[in-house]
Write a structure and sequence with these properties.
There is one protein chain. This protein folds into 2 domains: 175 residues, Aspartate Aminotransferase, domain 1 (Alpha-Beta Complex); 251 residues, Aspartate Aminotransferase, domain 2 (3-Layer(aba) Sandwich). Helix 8 crosses helix 9. The strands form 5 sheets. It has a 7-stranded mixed β-sheet, with helices on both faces. Strands 9-14-11 form a 3-stranded antiparallel β-sheet. Helices cover 40% and strands 14% of the residues. The chain is α/β, with parallel strands linked by helices. Bound molecules: ligand F0G.
């Protein structure tokens, strides 16, 4: 028997979970217009909606928060935060922000605008929204293997470098505002990006004078995969792998709500002095003064400590192993999932699970609702609700895949919680032929998945 990889922590504080019946949950779901974002968290048993801002902090992080220096300017907490982020990223300019999308708005709002193009392995939804809101275009160029849910490949998060060359030639390098590598590739299945791919992307950017940006939310998890799978990295530390990747980039955004193990925070880092000057003005106008951005001193302390803890090999082993545990058990039930399992989440292929639900009736939304009704498990559709568009005639242009993401909060749930999720899937599979599709009854223009309302077809 292989040794069990157990949670490398003890639980010191608990938060009760309120149990509910299936009938109650059916009523909650109806009241939430069949959109789990509109549920009350008290009505959720296991919340796999996101791994963002949902981490349990460590005793050291809570202790660090007590040291928070809340001075407006030049706080000690800022000095520690800046030193830590500089050491990790190697970039000279550190701009604190209240979360990742604030860093995105600052950078892409500045570099974007009508006529500009951004290219990425896959833009996360807030990244795309910030780019499109500026008037620019966001183009996803994932490697082809990344779009095949069943294909086993070590680095399905990679960007298609040949397609990048073609797109730069077609659009004209001067119009390409930046190339963004999202590590790990969240929307593409939580799949890792290799160092080789990052180097190849950097080379193209260098040749054409295009800024190369890292979306580094989950760079520690990505580093685990590089060490595990990419030749030449088996003896390297996770932090040093992350440092090498940051070293390739001209700028980086990070939502600290993921791999910095905090509930709120983020930053933008830049190499270019002039760009940093210009964006710093925007930072002060909209986020806060340069030494706190949108953050309290105590928040910056928690980020600083979290960025140290996340590279602990025991933590990363447990993290990746426990995500894989869920994926392996779902596969054993015959649930089609995105393979291999990524770092922060398991992605279920809802089209594969519900072949009888047409794509314009949102099979992913159907699964999200079934899983909540049956097991009180909340998760998110990452498919045609999130990324679908309409053509001129008003017909849905579906997303490339209809996935459902089961994102695992860091250090929050134990193995028996995850076993409950697996059991709930057992029933989902048994009742799959009865699942119905959904139609949208109300939707906003941007980021519609957050607030859209649905009804069963
Ligand atoms: N980039 C990626 C790859 C993300 O996953 C997120 C957030 C952001 C940027 C934006 O960061 O939320 O701090 O403003 N992802 C969350 C999720 C919301 O559920 O995956 P933020």
């Amino acid at each position: 028997m292989k040794p069990v990889v157990f949670e490398p922590f003890r639980i010191k504080m608990v938060e009760p979970i309120r149990l509910s019946t299936e009938d109650q949950r059916a009523a909650f779901l109806k009241a939430a217009h069949y959109n789990p974002f509109l549920l009350r968290s008290d009505d959720v048993l296991i919340d796999l909606l996101t791994d963002s801002g949902t981490s349990a902090m460590s005793s050291e992080q809570w202790a660090a928060m007590m040291r928070g220096d809340e001075s407006y300017a030049g706080a000690r907490s800022w000095e520690r935060f800046e030193a830590e982020v500089k050491d990790l990223t190697g970039m000279p300019h550190i701009l604190p922000t209240h979360q990742g999308r604030a860093a995105e708005r600052l950078l892409y709002g500045h570099l974007g605008g009508r006529g500009k193009v951004f290219i990425s392995n896959t833009h996360f939804d807030t990244t795309r929204a910030n780019i499109e809101f500026s008037g620019a275009e966001a183009i996803d160029l994932p490697v082809a293997v990344g779009l095949d849910p069943q294909a086993l490949d070590a680095f399905k998060g990679n960007l298609d470098v040949e397609a990048l060359e073609r797109t730069v030639a077609e659009k004209g390098a001067a119009n390409v505002a930046a190339v963004i590598l999202t590590v790990t590739n969240n929307s593409g299945g939580g799949q890792p990006v290799s160092m080789g791919n990052a180097k190849a992307v950097q080379a193209v950017c260098r040749r054409h004078g295009i800024p190369f940006v890292l979306d580094a939310c989950r760079i520690a998890e990505n580093a685990w995969f590089i060490r595990d799978r990419e030749p030449g990295y088996a003896d390297r530390g996770y932090r040093s792998i992350a440092q090498e990747m940051f070293g390739l980039a001209d700028a980086a955004t990070m939502s600290a709500k993921k791999d910095a193990l905090v509930n709120m925070g983020g930053f933008l880092t830049l190499r270019d002095d002039r760009l940093a000057d210009e964006i710093t003005q925007l930072l002060i106008i909209t986020e806060g003064y340069t030494t706190y951005g949108g953050l309290s001193g105590r928040d910056m302390e928690a980020v600083t400590q979290g960025l140290k803890e996340v590279f602990d090999p025991d933590y990363l082993d447990y993290r990746i192993t426990s995500t894989r545990y869920l994926g392996d058990h779902l596969m054993a039930l015959g649930v089609p999932i995105m393979r291999p399992v990524g770092g922060h989440a398991v992605y279920v292929d809802a089209r594969g699970l519900y072949p009888h639900i047409p794509v314009d009736q949102y099979p992913g939304q159907a699964l999200v609702c079934e899983l909540y009704r049956i097991g009180g498990v909340r998760c998110v559709e990452v498919g045609s609700v999130m990324f679908g568009k309409y053509d001129a005639a008003g017909a849905l242009i579906p997303a490339a895949m209809d996935l459902v993401r089961l994102a695992i909060p860091r250090r929050v749930y134990t193995q028996s919680h995850i076993d409950h999720v697996v059991q709930s899937f057992g029933r989902v599979v048994k009742e799959r032929d009865h699942a119905k599709g959904y139609r949208i009854t109300k939707e906003p223009r941007f980021l519609r998945h957050f607030t859209a309302r649905f009804e069963p077809v």
